[in-house]
Amino acid sequence: MITEDMVNALQQLADVLQTQRTLGAALAGIAEAAVVSVPGCDAASVALSVEGRPATAAVTARVALELDLVQYALDEGPCLASFRDIETLRLDVVDPGDAFPHFALAARQHGVDGVLSVPATWGPELVATLNLYSRRGPFDQTAVSIGTVLAAQIAIAVSRSPEFAAARAAVEQAQRDVDDQADVSMATGLLMATQGCTTEQAEGLLRRAAAHEERTILEVAQRIIDQHNNSS
Predict the structure, then answer these.
(1) Which domain range does residue 126 map to?
(2) Which of 102, 131, 160 corresponds to the end of one domain?
């Protein structure tokens, strides 16, 4: 059950986030809010998605960082599963069944009984996970509800950060570069097949056509591909 104190803590968090100027400070504030507002939470971490892999960016206690690193090293654990599947995951470390046996052993050695990991998404994109650790037993549904609210705050904080915008732009540009190179390579192959020439000669034909038509090599390559598709 969500109490008035929890609601107040979350409202205070929202107020604080409006004043934070860096992503690191915002994430640290959300992690601290999780320890205060999520029942049974003793430590929290936020793992950002960096080039498709999790990287811990904020922690409230050493145990959270250590267990995050254990999962990265083992390539196993609830936080990684939540990251990969983009699903909320609760783990009872005392009775984990067949789930994450190596991580469960490490968690028990750290005195942790329960883990909750909640994905933070911006549109269809995973931007982070909120990872919570308890030494007082497994997390309940109330913890999941509050964790979901906090994860949404993480997504907002990340989406507003210049770092995220720059990283997303870099990834999108890299993908465009890959696609463009694929078009040039395909056009080169088509010229080799139709003109009976070598790779170097086909590339020369593309360059000369681009200069003659006052277009880019990519534009010429795309025209050649379109002509091939229309004729086949």
Answers:
(1) 4-160
(2) 160
pLDDT for 163:
64
> What residues of the chain score a pLDDT lower than 70?
1-21, 163-172, 174-175, 178, 232
Whether residue 140 sits in one domain with residue 43: yes
The torsion region of residue 196 among left (phi > 0), alpha (psi -120 to 50) and beta comes to: left
Contact of 67 with 133, CB cutoff 8 Å: yes
pLDDT by residue (tens digit) across 133-185? Answer: 999 999 999 999 999 999 999 998 888 877 666 655 655 676 677 678 888 88
Which pTM was predicted?
0.68
Instruction: Verify that 151 and 195 share a domain, yes or no.
Output: no
* Co-location of 133 and 179 in the same domain: no
Domain count, the chain: 2
